[in-house]
Each structure stands twice: as C-alpha cells, then as structure tokens.
Request: fold
Amino acid sequence: MSPTPLRDQFTKRLKEARLAMGISQRELGRRIGLSEDVVSSRVTRYEQGTSEPDFATAGKMAAELGVPLAYLLADSDVLANVILAAARMPHAEQRRLATELKERAKRSSGAEQAESDSD
Reply:
C-alpha cells in the first residue's frame, strides 16, 4: 500500500490523538473491541498506514479518542483544527458557527467573483 496524503493525515492524527489520551496501541485496540491476539498489531498497522480500518472501526477509534471521525479524515490541518474546535462547542454554538461560516463563505465567494469579473 503506497502512502497517500489522506492516509498520511489520518495516520498522523490517529497517533497524535492516542498519545494525547495517554493510552497504548494495545489499550485502544481493546477499547474498540479487537480480539486480544491482534489488538496491538492492528492499531500499529493503522498508525503506520500499512492497513486501513473500515469506517465502523475508524468511527470506534475516533469515539474512544474523543475526536470526531471528520477530524481524523480532514484533508488539511487547518480544517482538522476547525472541526476539533467546533466539536468541543455546545450544539447551539456549533449552529451559530456554521451559520457564520456559511455567510462568510458567501461573502468571500462574492468578493472573489467580483474581483475576477474586474480582471
């Protein structure tokens, strides 16, 4: 399996989140229900990018690590940090943030369009 940018991001964030929780690969494997004979080696392969978890397993790991699955899968660090910050907010604040971001994106798109029209 050759590395891809998405896989690299996933493996990096998976390992960082696990280390931030202070748990071993074996412990993470146990918490997500992997059989005892593969707990450590399977998580090691996920973190090294030599094996990919299915979505259900990735979701379990994200839940155990206290991060949204979208954080692990985001294609940039900036987006990952936005996702993580938003996930830590109460739902009402998340809704306000989503509305604000949509409005800012509209204004930004409108400004970019006007700029390209004037070129």
Notes: The chain has two domains: 5-75, 89-119. The mean pLDDT is 91. The first helix runs from residue 5 to 21.
